[in-house]
Amino acid sequence: MGRRGYHVVAAGRSEERTRPVVDVILEGGGSAEFLHLDLACLESARSAGREFERRGRALDVLINNAGVGGVKGRTEDGFEIHFGVNHLGHFMLTHHLRPTFRPGTRIVTVASEVHRRADDIDFDRLRRPSRSIAGFAEYGVSKLANILFTRRLAQLQPDWRTYSLHPGVVDTNILPAMTGFFFRNRLTPEQGAETSVWCSTSGEVADQSGLYYSRKKVWAPSQAASDDGLARRLWEHSERWCDIAPQR
Known about the structure:
Elements: E1 7-12, H1 15-27, E2 31-36, H2 42-54, E3 61-64, H3 81-97, E4 106-110, H4 136-156, E5 161-166, H5 189-192, H6 194-201, E6 211-214, E7 217-219, H7 228-241
Parallel strand pairs: 1-2, 3-4, 4-5, 5-6
Antiparallel strand pairs: 6-7
């Protein structure tokens, strides 16, 4: 994105680990800055959104890309770690960035084909630790939530453009090292980012919103990910958990 002339705000928990990304963009003649954000803490997500607004920039593209996978635990607010970080933290951040959005702003959320492993959301379990092996079932629920969030946001805010996507199986550290045997031929991070960048910038999708993509094409998500009733219930629960006034 930096090479395309965008000013990039790289958000992360650690400035030390994020600074190299900012430096590469700056060294290449681009424009970038760091923003502190810990998606495992709802107060941090709220503060990051407000801090971005305080800096006085309008936001053309938001890429909700951070996440965890294959771990166990709970967030600071008591939510199952995959759901709390991959969905609820992004939900909170997106809400508090709204004042910086304008017509045509794009909200791109990185989901996964693993969403097909989840055929529903058990809302009563979302405040309990993972119970599946390595948390893979819970990861699937969080990715289902990413797609439902995108779908519902498109219905509520037609002036914006929302996209969810499967990036492919990417060679990053989101999954434990022991899973490498099961996921051969992984994409490089650069290859894995291609659909995210495409959804963020392409004129081909400028008039689309609320859809799911892979390999720069529209893909049909699972039946559960197309359930408007489930999307509405997820949205209402998320508003309540984030202490956000209802939007209908």
